[in-house]
Design goal:
The protein is α+β, with helices and mostly antiparallel strands. The protein folds into 3 domains: 19-193, no CATH class; 210-279, no CATH class; 295-344, no CATH class. 37% of the residues lie in helices and 18% in strands. It has a 4-stranded antiparallel β-sheet with strand order 2-3-5-6. A hairpin with a 5-residue loop joins strand 7 and strand 8. The relative contact order is 0.13.
């Protein structure tokens, strides 16, 4: 039976392989995060076989060209490694820690967090995924963090097996992310993904979820034509075959409601994603950048009499409402406090 064939009786979702490990694994505190640029554009292959086809995708003035290595293009399942790394770095930023593009982790933690098998085969597939991520080359004018990377680059610059067992299994791995990916992380151009994303069996299901998460978001619904959806998925199938594959996923979702966060429907050649209500609508958008603890004493000097934490809350909400991402958060905050005091004086 090929990927996407007729509806089967079992749940379309993979089993939750590591539920018993949740209480001992700190990594589950880091919610899965995907960068918006590769959720928007077809960076990863959805083929279940090695894909050695170069591709170019254009959307308005934006373009992305992806060149495979001799190992093939990085796949949607290889993306799990990026999601894991992005999640760890965003968790670090939210905790106020300094982060860099190099991430070190244990192989087993990644396998568990992404619902992969921890058998010998799981480690072999993990190494192959790292090779494809490092080997796939990208050229694009799509900016991340308002920075355009003009040189060709890989999704990861390099990986290194820091420690392995006597049998050759990877224990500790070090991954250096590309500037393109790291710029997105620093600017928090990321979205939280459902943990059930890692339970989706089919690459096309995962790609459909990514697209829905990016475009439907917290809205009630979002529609897209089948031909445009095929382009956004990066599918090499014929139009007829792609429609068949999507139709089967729609039918499975109708029977099992297995797609995370969004139901998927098809009417003629239009695809409709409908929110299941599990993605919360943000009540207030706030800037979440880090301030040093000394910021409060400095704020009290420029705005005497005012509660520094109250001023911080006002500043963060104002930055969020105005969609401002200060490059120097401390300087920007103190300037805000000074202007606040000039306009209002002492409380």
């Amino acid at each position: 039976m090929t990927d996407g064939d007729s509806v089967i009786a079992r749940s379309p979702l993979l089993p939750d392989r590591h539920e018993a490990d949740f209480f001992i694994c700190d990594i589950f505190d880091a919610a899965p995060k995907g960068d918006m640029a590769s959720m928007e554009h077809p960076i990863f292959s959805i083929s279940t076989k090695p894909d050695r086809n170069a591709r170019r995708y254009e959307n308005g003035t934006n373009f992305v060209e992806i060149q495979p290595s001799n190992k093939g293009l990085a796949t949607v399942h290889d993306r799990d490694i990026l999601i894991f790394c992005i999640s760890q770095l965003i968790a670090g930023l939210n905790a106020g820690r300094e982060v860099g593009p190099t991430v070190r982790f244990t192989a087993r933690d990644l396998l568990v967090a992404t619902n992969r098998q921890t058998s010998g085969g799981g480690y072999v597939r993990l190494k192959a995924a790292l090779e494809r991520l490092a080997g796939t080359r990208i050229e694009t004018n799509i900016t991340t963090g308002d920075v355009e990377v003009l040189d060709g680059f890989g999704l990861i610059d390099r990986y290194r097996i820091v420690r392995e067992t006597r049998d050759g299994y990877m224990l500790d791995i070090e991954v250096r992310l590309s500037d393109w990916v790291f710029n997105a992380i620093r600017s928090k151009e990321v979205l939280t993904l459902s943990r059930d994303y890692f339970r989706l069996r089919k690459p096309l299901e995962r790609r459909l979820y990514e697209i829905a998460r990016k475009h439907c978001g917290a809205k009630l619904e979002w529609k897209i034509g089948l031909k445009k959806l095929k382009l956004k998925c990066g599918s090499n199938s014929s139009d007829k075959e792609f429609k068949r594959l999507v139709s089967n996923i729609v039918e499975e979702d109708r029977n099992h409601s297995h797609m995370p966060d969004y139901a998927i429907e098809m009417v003629d050649d239009m695809i409709r994603f409908v929110s299941r209500g599990s993605v919360p609508t943000p009540l207030v958008t706030v800037f979440e950048g880090h301030l040093p603890t000394t910021a409060y004493d400095m704020a009290r000097e420029v705005a005497p009499g005012w509660d520094a934490r109250y001023l911080e809350q006002e500043w963060r909400q104002w930055c969020g409402a105005e969609k401002i991402t200060p490059k120097n958060p401390l300087g920007h905050f103190l300037s805000f406090c000074g202007t606040w005091f000039e306009k209002r004086g002492r409380p």
